[in-house]
Structure formats: structure tokens, C-alpha cells
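Input:
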Amino acid sequence: MIAAVHFRNFKALRAASVRLGPFNLLIGPNGSGKTSLIEALLRLRTLASLPAAPAGGAERPGGPQIEFEFAPPYADIRVHLGCVSDLQCDLLKVDHPPGPAGEARWGELAGRIRSIRGYLLDHYAMAAPARRAGPAGLASNAGNLGAVLATRRTEAPAAYAELEAEFRRLMPEFSGVDCRDGAGGADALWFPLANGEAAIPAEQVSQGTLYLLAILTLAFDPAPPAVVCLEEADRGIHPRMLREVRDALYRLSHPAAAALARPAVQVLTTTHSPYFLDLFRDHPDEVVLAQKQGNAATFERLSDRPDLAEIIQDAPLGDLWYSGVLGGVPGAE
Amino acid sequence: MTSRGTLTIESLPVNTPPEHRPPGLATNDRQPGTARPKVALLSESPADEAALRVLVGYVLGPFEVVPPSLRARGWPSVEQVLPPILRHLHFHTDADGLVVVVDSDDSVVHDAAHEVPGYHHAGCRLCRLRAVFRRTLRHLPPARGRTRVLRAAGLAVPAIEAWLLCGRDPEVTEAAWLAGQDRGRLPYTRLELKVRAYGTDRPGLPLQTRRAVEEVSRHRGDIRRLENDFPHGFGALARDLQDWKKLDR
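Output:
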């Protein structure tokens, strides 16, 4: 949905641009702008709920600026965010085709923008029982995981069954995921053991199990958002299971590959795992390197490197990244 | 020897639980006192391993898989992890042999000239794998009642999906790849092979595994077409495995 983002003076992104595809794996040293890119999308979501500033209206001269381009069918719309500081963006300017038709198309795009979701999963929050609160999706820390799954089990049983079957395949020690009434009417997650001996409460299962379940909850969402941003997709997951994480995220970004007839969800995810990066050898166009030079950061698509085909023959992508030959490593300036 | 016309566990997906196996079917489950070879497999993914299990079974007949599943992260990780894996298998398991298959990608393809005793092509991944076997095993003392772990090394040209397409896509052969290398215009890419084999270049692991097993199972125990279309990469693997059967262990 989002084709490109251009930054000026936004945090470390002094003058940076990035093209985005259906799937985007962001790698780079700490402080190189990966999270800032995700933050920009979340600010766009927030401001898209507000009325746009009139054409030729107020500017934020000298302040941080973020500009968004969109993929077809919204390629003729551009959105500009003006900020008074790195922490506060309060100006939304929209360039769209004139007339009611243009207004309507912007309204349509704004609706999709408002569904952008960002996640930094928190296993403590996920393990705690959660109350159901309306039709909201998974919270940004997945702290309402129990409530979301309990709702889905009731309202979308087929989707829930599919998710549960996938969870069983990946974690065969469990026979499924159970949502039980917890204290104060909250939904508590339990994990029945496959051997039938007992069920384990969420607070006693591993962090990785909860992270994996949250990722599957996103991947098997029957009504997914337009864009999913996920920080550290590899966190807590065994290296051999990372392929499954990638495949779950591909289910969102490339639904046709999973024989799903629904619109693609744009995925942005970050990682510091060379093992996760290895999995993108055949799709370097999906990897975005964040580079830090002094206090300024820039982005580069891995597929834009002219020598990539040559160097990729000699080592796994993760090893190449770690070595420094790809860039995107600390202390490179 | 092949298992044509005989159902064996090797034709089932990896991890098929015993209760889902057809009744009376031979299994890979360890059975003390049987003469089944004990085989370790080093591969890049569970899907590759599933296909290899079927192919190895076609040559060896029923065999036991030595746990755990061994994985490498592609070339040159295979070359790097192979020495410790061989030492582990030699001293700490009763594995008779190790099966390892690597993708050639765009590297030099193994050919008949490389089979001359003493020849080693530094750009050929199969020659390099064999060299690692030789170097690692040469000075190991006997252990577990055997002198060494046997080698079965193959080279998938350019990737294992080419083997999966054997007999279904006549354009996919070692000869076609070599001709493409000579011309400077490769006949297909890894991604194209994935699409042809799985219907998508982003297959999920269950789909990839299922398709891999389905495709190699088309050969029904007869590896002659694979040996014909992939004489050096697959042929080398088959010859190594056939040599195991000549040895009295």
C-alpha cells in the first residue's frame, strides 16, 4: 500500500528515502532508523483520523517532515506530515486528484491507513488474562491476546481452527490453545498438553511460545489490517523455527502463495538475527538495510547493490551482513 | 536395488506418526538386531530432508535415521559444519554413514573429469565436500565397531527443486544447466524452479515438504531417470549409496 517514505530531519533520518514493497525486512545497527520508519507509519495512521490541512495552509518550516507515496490504485495521492519536533507531528497535508472523486479516493485510502498496526510483543502482557473490549484487533503489545483469541473462537471459528491447527503443527507438545474464563471476567490462555496430562497456563509457557502464537494470531486474522509492522520478528524463536515465522508473515504479504483470496497485507518487520536474514537469499528485494553515518541514517534496498549476485554465492546472507560487506553494521561510519 | 512396487516408510512424509502409517508397512524405527543401515542426513530444510529420505530409501531400501536432523545454512556453512558433524557421528553415534546434498547454485558443476583419482576442483562443491570427508576421517581412530562413517554426497544442480522436477519438466537437467553456463545464459533461475516445483516462489514449509515428497515419489523406487538427467550431482550420491551396500559392515 505504501510505496515510499521520504524523511527530512526526522530523528536520525536527516535526508532519507525508502521504497517499500509488500514485504520489508529492516536490518541495521541500533539507532539506524528502523523503528523510526515504523513510527512514521503509526503517526500517519494517527493523523489520518484528523481533517487534512487546507491546501497552501500552515507549514512547519524547519521541523521534521515525512512524505508518503502510495502504490496503485492510490499512486496519485501523496501525504505530507509536518512535525514540530521528533515527538510531535501535528500537520497532515494531502495531495489528491481534485473534485469529489478525488476526495472519495482519499477517504478510501485514509480508511486503510487507519488500519495500520504496529507491534512490539510483550510476553508478560500476553500471559496476563485480558478483558474483551469491542472489536479492536490485537493490541500493540499483544496484551489482549487471550481476549482476541476468545473472540475469534466465537465469531470466526473456522479461522480459529486454522490458527490452532497451525499452532499444533509448530508446537506439537500442545494439543491446542484454550481460552478460559479468568478472574474478573477476563479471558485467560491455557495450553493443553498433547499427551492429555494437563494444561499449562500462559504465564508458565515459554516466551517463544507466546511470541509464536501472537504472530500466528496476526497471520491467521480473518480481517487483517492493511499494514502490519512488527518489531523483532525473530525474538524468542529458535533459529530453526524462523522459517515458520517468515512463512507466517508471507501469509499476510503474499496471500496468493498460501492459496488465500484476500488483499495482501503490507508487512514491515525488523530483525537483528543473521539466521532470519538468511531466509531472504532468494528475495533480496525484500531486505532494507538501514545505514548509520555519524548521526544520520539512510536506507538501501539490498537488491539495489550491483555486486549482490556475485557476493551472495559465497556465504549465507546473514554471515555477509555480520561481516560488514553489506553495510548495516555498527561503527560503519 | 530398488523398492519398486513396495511401500516403505521412505515414501511417507517426514514425521508421519506411527498411527498414521499403513498397516504392515516397514518403518525406520530403530529395531535392534536388524541389518538396516543407520543413516544421518544433513540438509538445509525439513523439506529437503523429506525428499532425501525417499531417495536414499530407493537405493538402500529400508534404513534407520540417526537423530537429530542435521541442518546447515547453505553453502559454505555445510563445509564449515561438516567436520564437527562427522566427528560427532563417528564417536557419539552408531551411524553407518552420512548423506549430504548441497545446491550447486552457479558454481562449477561436478563432472566425469572430477572423478579421476587424485583430482580436486576447488570450485566444485562436491569435490570440496569429499575433501572434507577425507581430511576429517583420515586420522580418526576406529570407534563404535567401525573404522569410519561412510560418505554419500550429492550436488543438486542448481538446486534440489531440479531433482524434484525430474521426469516432469524435461527442460530441467544437468545438461541444460551446463549448456546454459557455457552460453552465459542460464536456462532457469532458482526462483523459477521453485515456482515450477511448488506453484509459488514463497512456499510454506508444509506445502514445500508435501510437494517434495510427492515429486520424488513419482519415481516409485526407480532412480534411473534421475541418474540419467542428473548424472554427476545425483549420480554421485547414488553411487556412494550403492557402494555402501557392497561393504560388509
